[in-house]
Write a structure and sequence with these properties.
The protein is α/β, with parallel strands linked by helices and 644 residues long. It contains 26 helices and 23 strands. The longest helix has 19 residues, at 198-216.
Length: 644
């Protein structure tokens, strides 16, 4: 049995961490720290060095979540990352990541002549420190240097450090190798993934190269087999060989020989999406579907054929009249806007490449994600199937909302395909943290210029979105209800049986306009609107009154409609207007979660704060303009509202 090295019981103390001061008291008065913590907050680590006066901190993170920490740092900006790396460079900070999960929470604190050992349930995080959402417990002992138990704890700590790697070490090396480049720029490049793990980087390049070559075969080669060069580094080569193992690829002399059709089938079956790529120089879009390579770009045909294709699109949108819609025109406009978005989705990566080349880090945002809202039986799933069939040229099922995961998204993004990832029926309440991480990081952090990434489309019945999401998604409401087994069923079946080549014409025309585009419009669908208007003109067919000539948010705003209903028809709220602000007072029977919904409807330009069952609007002019809207508003409605 191990010899008992514990100090006398009188030396052991305990602390229940109920408040912030309980956490802070454990660490006060010391100058150095070594810690093992399953989760670590970068801000708290910097706080120890910058505000608490610690001379050195070494942290072993409990799980190798290097990528996750890099993405978390990306949300905080390059300055925090730069500060962390510079402290590593000076030797005052070390962050270590293990090769296996560590659940230990152990802290060894030092000051002259004394050590404090803390064993606790608290992670080194802001959440644990604030103690507002969790309670933690700690045992600790203050010991003199050289105490036998302290020697054993030191050995235990070293057992955790073994087989750990230094986090941010590659960024410190970047600083060393690029002394002339501003460090903030280097930190930004590192956060955007420009500095990636060598193994993953080499394998990623190989997979992108395979996708490109598999689709290049087409009519240019009668031979379905092609070769790719494997990475030179042994670790990267082993990684690549494991990836290619299911394909039984022949590898000799540092090369692998692959069958193009087999690879295309493998990707489609294992990831649920086909390989699709844009070839701007040829104004072509190609897809590998069921092992067959198709070109999805064709010149416009005769006017009669174009007219028939447009008639087919309009017939689908007019099925709204077979359902129950409060405003059928609004429902059709929303669906047409969504169709324009779906048609541009395969070109999102090309759009992003052009945008980044023109604006660089000044505007790192990518094209907004499509978010289609609606309760069940409103046609969301049918719409995805219809538009994916138009794009692919044959029936293609959307991805299940339950498959929405970081692994799925990054896995598909690594394939080198631009085929949209359409997740149907996402249960947002169960995945909001992931939803936030993906939307904030996908284009701004994870995207790489030398790769091809697919756009993301989501449908959900979650009505309201938080402020940060409003600028990153294009939300469209399908405000219609189809009765199961109703009259629209036969009409839809007939529409799905018909083939429509309109996407292939759109593809050719869109690539031409994208190539010739001047400054990019704030309306990401501007080019798509112009292309469709051109097809209508070519066909000699008038635009339907529900064609969205401008962004739908300028024509309709569901949030504005809800507010008008609240104030004018339901009379559940009252607006008191003042010179410098407006106050919205909700009726007493309104629940707080209901008020929160109306708060979420407000656009980003309307600054506000919550006070009980009232909203204080600090930008009343913007609020008034938003309520009026850009469409005609009955004068009696405005008179009643502003009289209050």
């Amino acid at each position: 049995m191990q010899e008992s090295l514990f100090p006398e019981p009188a030396a052991l103390r305990s602390k229940v961490i109920l408040r912030r001061k309980d956490f802070d008291a454990l660490f006060e008065g010391f100058t150095r720290m070594r810690a093992v913590s399953y989760v670590v907050s970068p801000d708290l680590v910097l706080d120890f060095l910058d505000k608490r006066g610690y001379e050195a901190v070494e942290v072993v993170v409990g799980e190798n979540l290097t990528e996750a920490y890099q993405q978390e740092l990306a949300q905080k900006g390059a300055e925090v990352t730069q500060r962390l790396a510079e402290k590593l460079e000076k030797g005052t900070l070390r962050i270590l990541v293990p090769d296996r999960t560590l659940h230990t929470k152990l802290y060894i604190l030092e000051r002259t002549g004394q050590r404090r050992v803390i064993a606790t349930s608290a992670n080194l995080t802001l959440t644990a420190r604030e103690a507002t959402r969790q309670v933690n417990y700690a045992w600790y002992a203050d010991l003199p240097e050289g105490h036998p138990w302290l020697v054993q704890v030191e050995r235990d700590y070293q057992a955790h450090v073994e087989r750990c790697a230094l986090f941010l070490g590659d960024l410190v090396e970047l600083f060393r190798k690029n002394p002339e480049t501003p460090r903030k720029e280097l930190a930004e490049a590192w956060l955007k993934g420009a500095v990636a793990d060598g193994v993953d980087l080499e394998t990623g390049k190989l997979i992108q190269d395979i996708a490109k070559k598999a689709l290049q075969l087409g009519s240019e080669s009668a031979e379905p087999v092609f070769s790719v060069r494997l990475p030179e580094a042994p670790a990267a080569r082993r990684h690549a060989e494991r990836y290619l193992a299911p394909l039984n690829a022949a590898t000799t002399g540092g090369e692998a020989r692959l069958n193009g059709a087999s690879y295309l089938r493998f990707v489609q079956e294992s990831h649920g999406v086909p390989i699709m790529r844009v070839y701007p120089d040829k104004r072509e879009l190609r897809i590998g579907l069921d092992g067959e390579i198709r070109t999805l770009s064709e010149p416009l045909p005769d006017a009669s054929s174009a007219n028939a294709a447009l008639e087919h699109i309009e017939s689908y949108l007019q099925t709204v009249d077979l359902g129950q819609a409060p405003d059928p025109r609004f429902a059709k406009v929303s669906m047409y806007e969504a169709l324009l978005y779906m048609f541009t989705a395969p070109f999102a990566n090309e759009y992003m490449r052009i945008k980044r080349s023109r604006y660089g880090v000044i505007d790192s945002r990518g094209p907004r994600f499509l978010y289609i809202y609606g309760p069940s039986q409103n046609g969301k799933s049918t719409f995805l199937r219809f538009t994916l069939k138009l794009i692919a040229g044959k029936p293609f099922e959307p991805l299940n909302g339950g498959d929405f995961s970081k692994r799925k998204i990054l896995g598909a993004a690594s394939l080198g395909t631009s085929f949209p990832l359409a997740f149907d029926d996402l249960v947002l309440t169960q995945r909001y943290g992931l939803f936030e991480e993906v939307l904030k990081s996908y284009w701004e952090v994870w995207w790489k210029e030398d790769a091809v990434s697919p756009q993301i489309i989501l449908t959900s019945n979650a009505y309201t979105l938080r402020d940060w999401a409003k600028s990153r998604v294009k939300r469209l409401d399908f405000d219609v209800h189809f009765v199961a087994g109703g009259p629209g069923k036969e009409a839809l079946a007939d529409l799905f049986r018909r083939d429509n080549p309109i996407f292939r014409w759109f593809s050719r025309l869109y690539l031409r306009r994208l190539e010739q585009a001047g400054p990019l419009s704030d309306d990401e669908l501007d080019l798509a609107r112009r292309v469709f208007e051109g097809i209508y003109a070519h066909a000699g067919r008038p635009l339907p009154d529900y064609f969205p000539k401008e962004p739908i948010e300028r024509l309709y705003d569901p949030g504005r409609r809800a507010w008008r209903d609240l104030l004018d028809r339901m009379r559940k709220g009252r607006v008191d207007w003042e010179a410098d602000r407006a106050s919205v007072h909700f009726s007493e029977d309104m629940q707080h979660y209901e008020i929160k919904e109306y708060e979420n409807y407000l656009p980003p330009g309307v600054k506000h704060r919550r006070r009980g069952k009232a909203l204080i609007i600090e930008t009343p002019k913007e609020f008034r303009v938003w309520l009026e809207g850009s469409v005609a508003t009955p004068k009696n409605w405005l008179r009643r509202l502003f009289r209050r």
